[in-house]
Amino acid sequence: MSVSDLFKPLTLLHGPAMRNRFMMAPLTSQQSDYDGTASKYDQYWIAQLAQSGYGLIQTSAATVDADGIAFERQLGIHSDKHLSGLTQMATAIREGGGLSAVQLHHAGHRAKPSVGGIPAPASGKTVQGVRAITTEEVERIRDSFIAAAKRAQLAGFDGISVHGAFGWILSEFMSPNLNDRKDKYGGSMENRARFTMEVIEGIRQACGPDFQIGWRLSIERYGLRMEELRDITAEIFDRELIDYFDLALWDSAQLVREGAFQGKSMLSVFAEIPRKGVRLGAAGKIMSAQRAGQLLDEGCDFVLIARAGILQRDFPLQVKANPMYDSPELPVTADYLRQGGLSERFIETMRGWQTFVRPGS
Ligand SMILES: Cc1cc2nc3c(=O)[nH]c(=O)nc-3n(C[C@H](O)[C@H](O)[C@H](O)COP(=O)(O)O)c2cc1C
Prior knowledge:
Elements: E1 22-24, H1 40-50, E2 56-63, E3 75-76, H2 83-95, E4 99-105, H3 135-155, E5 159-164, H4 169-174, H5 189-207, E6 212-217, H6 226-238, E7 244-248, H7 266-271, E8 279-283, H8 289-297, E9 302-305, H9 307-311, H10 315-321, H11 334-339, H12 344-351
Parallel strand pairs: 1-2, 1-9, 2-3, 2-4, 4-5, 5-6, 6-7, 7-8, 8-9
Helix pairs in contact: 1-2, 2-3, 3-5
This protein binds flavin mononucleotide.
């Protein structure tokens, strides 16, 4: 395949097709209002992305429950007061010709009290002095994911992406190290995956057959077991429960270091699963046109662009114009980001990412 294949449309099981294979990854920019309402900075960022040629744009991680917040100035979708800002985002994306999805997030044990979060651990051993959430509390949070998806639909989004990565609540429940529950949400792998399954199935039921459901999974850290995650993913693919699967790697070329799949690329383990009509994409250091094209050869149906899109908003258009396009070398100066249209708040957030913004610039 070649770079030009990235511009072929991609049908999804539900709703409209992606016009090409570029998906904007979820990026928490910490520039919303303190109550989670999308700010003018969020709107400006989305408006820029909307004109940048992506097939689908995911919003930053949006809290489905006020208690589940992890970051100051995080986007919210837990209240109807967020609807107007979300509607403006969805409209801008649609007018730009792309599909849209809100990333649905609850931080679980990593909810941050200093910004209003209340840690909700799967186990009583994870956060000192905090008991495990009860079965009823799990079900209440599950329902808040479903209510948030309904809100996204009402705002005009084509779908949502369920955040099942990075040790946040759904990923936490998957982990045998973080989940020692004795109820139906703990113990066997099937039980640990139940929270995720109920969220996905509940959203499909509530939002109907035209709504798109993505699921983001990471496999590194948090005591997650690759073999288990592979099996859960295989079931989700086999039952065609989602439209697209987003493998959140920090490097899309990362190899498995131990266990049954040692030596294979993490991506290949998931790309080799029969996926029926589900589409598969990966994130992680996709910084050039050539690397993006290569990922189609490695089994991806689409690619997720994150840091390359912060550096150059219209990455897909750059790739279209130049199949040898490569991102600027990191770190870049704050001025470079400013000139590209990044807000001061977003630049401040990026200063927290190692080797992204040149210190002192
Ligand atoms: C500033 C920043 C914010 C991010 N916010 C989110 C987020 O809200 N949700 C999420 O799932 N991943 C988030 N990520 C991870 C990215 O979506 C992506 O998976 C990761 O950066 C690897 O891709 P890259 O190498 O192209 O940057 C964030 C990454 C960055 C750099």
